[in-house]
Amino acid sequence: MDINDFTDHDIREHGKKEESAAALKVTKTKVLDRNEDIIKQITHLAESSSGLSIVSVSGGMQLIYNNFFDLYKNVLDSYRKGVGSGIRWIISIDKETLSLVKTFLDLGMQIKHIKNMPMMNFAVGEKEANATIEKMEGGKMVQSLLTSNEPVYVQHFKSVFEELWRTGIDPEQRIKDIEEGLDPEVIETIEKPATVQQLYLDILKSATSDVMIILPTLNAFSRQEKTGAIRLAQEAAKERNVKVRILIPMTTINGHQSSQKEMKDKLKRYYNDYIGIRYFESSPAGTPDTKATFLLVDRKSSLVFEIKDDLKDTFIEAIGRSTYSNNRIAVLSYIAIFENLWNQSELYQQIRQAYEQLKVDDIMHKEFINVAAHELRNPIQPILGLTEVLRAIKKESTNTRQEDLLDAIIRNAKRLQRLTDDILDVTRIENQALQINKEQFDLSEVVTNVISDCKNQLRNQPYKEKSMKIVLLPPYDNIYIEADRNRLNQVIYNLLNNAINYTEKGIISIGMEIKKGGEIIVSVKDNGNGIDPNIYPRLFSKFATNSPKGTGLGLYISKSIIEAHGGRIWAENNKDGRGATFYFSLPLVICRRVSTYQVQKKDNNNIRTNSNACLKEQKLSRSDIF
């Protein structure tokens, strides 16, 4: 054929083919982001390949159906005529993609189903490959496409495809299961942590009724929080009414024993009406060395993965081999483990609390018996002994001698009386039978009387009487309150007597201060030994004392009395390191002190004046108080 026989059109077409062939000889990898370039490349791959191998999500298949159906149909028609190798497609078949999959199957496309799709979608021919990580939801056109004709990349995509094709499931069985409402039983081992993480999140998103999670450590919970799994569990509980339960062990975290309180403080923000969190003592398999996380969803599927390194911060770094299953027997066995641990954790906690309380009660009971026996014996013996001495010397004794002996008898008898009163008060407090009989009285008068009584007692301790001073700090004016006079007298005496016992010399001061807001604070400050750090946490508990004297009941009773008045009581060591200060507060529901307030009352035409009256008011300003 002569060259003159070629038309201009033939020459142009021949030139295009030569340019195309030349272009293929240049190996290159590039990213396309222009819509026309992407469409052109997808078309070129289908037209230039005798066969295609595709891995894509459902959006990719929808994109081909919407935009390149005729092109792909031509490839499949050629395959039926014996030309080329046709099209093989790997996809996750579900109810949404079922119709589309059937359409392409009818055209002769070879399709296989896998449950867990890789993150990248790709199509590979003999010499070229296209790839994207976009989901192409609803068949949306790709916005960015990676394309390459470099042999190393093309061969890589072919290898990945062949491995997935080898493990894929024939579409006929999968379609049958979907149409019959059945999920095929799968027991799958997953090696890649990134795939496990995505599957874990996807399973949580799909939950409709139940989520059960067993975590091996508190660190595992932190990783779940970082990866978003806990947030998904919260959303499932709040938005879809899914019942979420999480089991966490009381185990050693990074060498430190984590208490239940510490764990609850960390987890408390996750509690709501649907999420339950409980703690168990050992790992799910019953041995401390077992480290695995269990996820059970809707009582139909399970995901179990081992913890390779619990010290790692991220999910992917920490986990090892994982197993996914929807096998009924396997899932039910894991559910049985979870339910047993869940119920046992509640029962164990109840037993543990009861046991701890029994231990505390037993110790307190023994301490009480021991202390009470000694304290009752100590005053009784002098009473009996001194009575015998008094009987023997009654004829020859001078009045002074008799008075000393009688003082000792009275002092020890009062000590015995106070002990028995304390025991009775403790009984009333524990039986919630402590009665408060309120009346209006002058608090400063009660304080002054207690100071006088304590000074009188110091006369029996000549050394302390000379080296110790008890002072009342200003203001000294009358302060009227409504409270139980005898009970407050008891509280102030306990605090002052406590200060005397722990102070060898120096000053014990008592102050009264009215605070803004209608509250009076009474303080007793000493410069003695201070509060023992070992006693401080339980200072106001029963029998909290390290003194050879006393029962340790006074502060416990004082706390109960003050709280019964709606007040509070506390203590602290002084900032200068010498001694301690005890405080208690009382609400001033009525306290308007007027030094010369006169209440005039007509009585048979006589006018009487009460110079220390207290006016009852419900709401007081600071100016009303003084």
| CATH class descriptor name of the largest domain | Alpha Beta
Q: State the low-pLDDT regions, or none.
A: 1-6, 16-24, 252-260, 283-289, 591-626
- Terminal Cα separation, in Å? 127 Å
How many extended strands?
25
- Residue fraction in strands: 15-25%
* CATH architecture field of the largest domain: 2-Layer Sandwich
How much helicity do the residues have?
40-55%
Number of domains: 3
Look at the helices and sheets and give the structural class: alpha+beta
Tertiary shape = rod-shaped
Which topology of the largest domain does CATH recognise?
Answer: Endonuclease, Chain A
Question: Explain this structure to me?
Answer:
- With 626 residues, the chain is of the alpha+beta class.
- It has three domains: 27-179, Endonuclease, Chain A (2-Layer Sandwich); 187-326, Endonuclease, Chain A; 439-587, 2-Layer Sandwich (Heat Shock Protein 90), CATH 3.30.565.10.
- The protein is 46% helix and 20% strand.
- The protein is built from 19 helices and 25 strands.
- A seven-stranded mixed β-sheet has the order 1-7-6-5-2-3-4, sandwiched between helices.
- Strand 5 (121-124) and strand 6 form a beta hairpin.
- It is rod-shaped and about 140 Å long.
- Residues 1-6, 16-24, 252-260, 283-289 and 591-626 have low confidence and may be disordered.
